[in-house]
Amino acid sequence: MQNYISIISKFFFILFINQIFFYIPKVNSAENIKIIYSVFSRTIKVDSLKEFAINGKSTSKLRRILRATNTPDDKIQTILNKDFEIPITIASKLAYSEIGNVFLTRLSSIVHAPNARDNETGVLALRASVIQGINLGDGKINLLNFFESYPTNTVILNVNALSKVMNKVESISELLNFFTNSPLEKLKTN
């Protein structure tokens, strides 16, 4: 009987230690988007953004942010709901390619996790978000799927960094033209 109690106590002790040292909290998806502009920041719920994109209804907080953009609501809804169709295998190959790594590294200065201390963490989160977003959208991705798939509770959107990138829009459009032509065909065959 003493041996039986000893075995049970060791078993529960191992389970307890296992929970302490090997517990990995489950992260479902981003619930908040923290928009940073200069020294100001606002946090909006991904659910309220989704409600706006689908039904056009917005909370007062979201309404104030939308008014600050000086963009009509229907145009913002179109941007949020715009689907990009790309097979998950091609997206994965592109995300892990050298040019994809450069693109994601630059994007990680715009969209990143609150506690990301280096570019690599941001790149990993972006890869996961893109691939999971495509999976969530059944082969298509839009901004909502992207944010819903981001692997932290809060995602930071740095408007200052976004403005710098938008000033170089011609080089980005050239990059997009490069990707939409022959290299995607090459990736499909590999």
Features:
single chain; 190 residues; alpha+beta; two-stranded antiparallel sheet; 6 strands
Taking all Cα atoms into account, the compactness measure Rg is 21 Å
Poorly predicted parts: none
The CA-CA distance between the termini, in Å, is: 63 Å
Number of domains: 1
Helical element count?
11
H-E order = HEEHHHEHHEHEHEHHH
**Percentage of residues in strands:** 5-15%
User: Shape, please?
Assistant: globular
**Computed structural class:** alpha+beta
Helix content: 55-70%
Strand order of the largest sheet: 2-1-6-4
Question: How many strands?
Answer: 6
What is the average of the pLDDT values?
Answer: 78
Sheet bearing the most strands, described? Answer: 4 strands, mixed
Structure description:
This protein has helices at 2-22, 46-55, 60-69, 73-81, 88-95, 98-107, 119-136, 143-149, 159-166, 169-180, 182-189; strands at residues 32-37, 40-45, 84-85, 111-112, 140-141, 154-158. The longest helix is centred in the N-terminal third of the chain and has 21 residues, at 2-22. Helix 5 (88-95) runs antiparallel to helix 7 (119-136). The strands form two sheets. It has a four-stranded mixed sheet. The protein has one domain (32-189). Helices cover 64% and strands 12% of the residues. The protein contains eleven helices and six strands. The model has no long low-confidence stretch (mean pLDDT 78). The protein is α+β, with helices and mostly antiparallel strands and 190 residues long.
